[in-house]
Amino acid sequence: MKKYSAIGRVLVLLLAAFGSNSCVGTTTPTPGLPQELLATVSKSNVRDYWTNDFGREKRSGGYSVIVPVESAEKLLKSIRRQVPSGYVAFIGTTNNLDDPRINGAELVLAPGQNQFDIVRLAATNAVNYDKTTDQIIEELRGWDAQFGIDIWQAETDTVQLKLKSIPADLPEFSQELYEFCPDIVDQGVGDIESLQVAVKQEGAIFLWWD
Q1: Distance between CA 60 and CA 50 in Å, rounded?
Q2: 173: which residues sit within 8 A by CB, 6+ positions away?
Q3: How far is Cα 168 from Cα 191, in angstroms, rounded to an integer?
Q4: What element of type H or E holds 74?
Q5: Residue 111 class from Cβ within 10 Å (0-12 exposed, 13-18 middle, 19+ buried)?
Q6: What does pTM read for this prediction?
Q7: Greatest CA span in the chain, whole angstroms?
Q8: Fewer CB within 10 Å: C terminus or N terminus of the chain?
Q9: 28-37, 50-59, 64-73: lowest mean pLDDT where?
């Protein structure tokens, strides 16, 4: 059973998400291109794809590396300070179900204009709750307009973000958050009051749809 909050699954992550489908392996970075940045920062082999569907679907048009989970956020921060125009950087697949299974976090650098393209690149959805990628993005845009958010991780069923400011009406926002993503309470903190405390203390939101 998954657990919510940066004290929960976020710390598990930190301690241990466009184009046609294709499988093309690793690539030797060419000087001056985005993949050179990934290679330099991560010291890892660059793949000319990133993945969707829990690592089982490969997407071309961007680049990724597999890094240790415990260093993923630190490496992402380094990448983001140098991201070339027209690209977005994020942590992608962390729950890989491919065969053979890959252990580690996927650090992605792919074409995009803003942070909402991260969710699109990750093809995040909530099929069990009849929510499409576009519907999730619409909700996140609303939060960004009200409080400011920073989306830093997205994969098939998950989005992680940081709040730039804490909502003034925290009870109302927490209820809205629960209605949008029930699992963070029902399979996570247990009640709305605990969710309020978590949001206030951590300034972070871990969304997942089981």
Answers
A1: 7
A2: 167, 199
A3: 20
A4: helix 72-80
A5: middle
A6: 0.84
A7: 52
A8: N
A9: 28-37
